[in-house]
Design brief:
Radius of gyration: 19 Å
Strand content: 15-25%
Low-confidence stretches: 1-8, 186-192, 196-200
Structural class: alpha/beta
Number of strands: 11
Order of helices and strands: EHEHEHEHEEEEEHEHHE
Strand order of the largest sheet: 5-4-3-10-11
Number of helices: 7
């Protein structure tokens, strides 16, 4: 945490890259004496509405089946529903962080998101158990062999079964390669769209 007493606010610029808490961060910074012109909004570059669902790149098809790898707070699921105007068959979401998973269940019920299955599992190339560094935020990740809690994993092919997956969004820290290879059948034979954000 920056000690605001030792920082000359006029010499500091802050770039905000999150879209989820942008207003709260701006409010905090303004309360700390920053001026609006010192706050740079980079959240538009990471806004899920355009991050995965740019209408200039992809057109939704009737009966979409969406895989949300790392659903965090269901914001991507809501952006997906908006993108396809609610014309989808199913959302299959994965969230291994227990706190985030419970929040996703709450959001999906409160906002009446229909036909959504949320799994408290990590994405991998098979069903197994792995160590997981749980933060209750966006920093949770599949970790080393020695630290964190153990979580169950599943592959996209295992959970999706015979569903014709049309869109895979993949944002899973620590399981990039394994999660993608676990969608071998769906990714190569059935899926028409794939959104991936590289996170180490």
């Amino acid at each position: 945490m920056v000690n605001m007493d030792t920082v000359k606010a006029d010499d500091v610029y802050v770039a905000i890259t999150t879209s989820g808490f942008y207003e709260e961060i701006v409010s905090f910074l303004l309360g700390q004496g920053f001026k609006q012109e010192q706050i740079i909004n980079l959240s538009l570059a990471t806004d899920v509405k355009n991050q995965y669902f740019d209408p200039d790149i992809m057109t939704p098809q009737p009966g979409e089946v969406f895989i949300d790898g790392g659903c965090f707070n269901c914001s991507t699921d809501k952006a997906f529903i908006n993108w396809c105007s609610g014309n989808y068959k199913k959302i299959i979401a994965f969230e291994p962080d227990r706190k985030n998973y419970l929040h996703c269940l709450e959001v999906s019920q409160r906002e009446a998101i229909r036909d959504i299955e949320i799994y408290n599992k990590g994405l991998w190339d098979c069903a197994t158990e792995l160590f997981f560094e749980e933060t209750g935020g966006q920093g949770s990740r599949i970790g080393s062999d020695t630290g964190g809690n153990r979580i169950s994993t599943a592959s996209i092919d295992e959970v999706a079964g015979d569903e014709k997956v049309t869109f895979i969004k993949f944002r899973c820290r620590g399981s990039r390669i394994e999660g993608i290879t676990g969608s071998g059948e769906n990714n190569s034979a059935k899926s028409s769209s794939f959104g991936c954000q590289y996170l180490s």
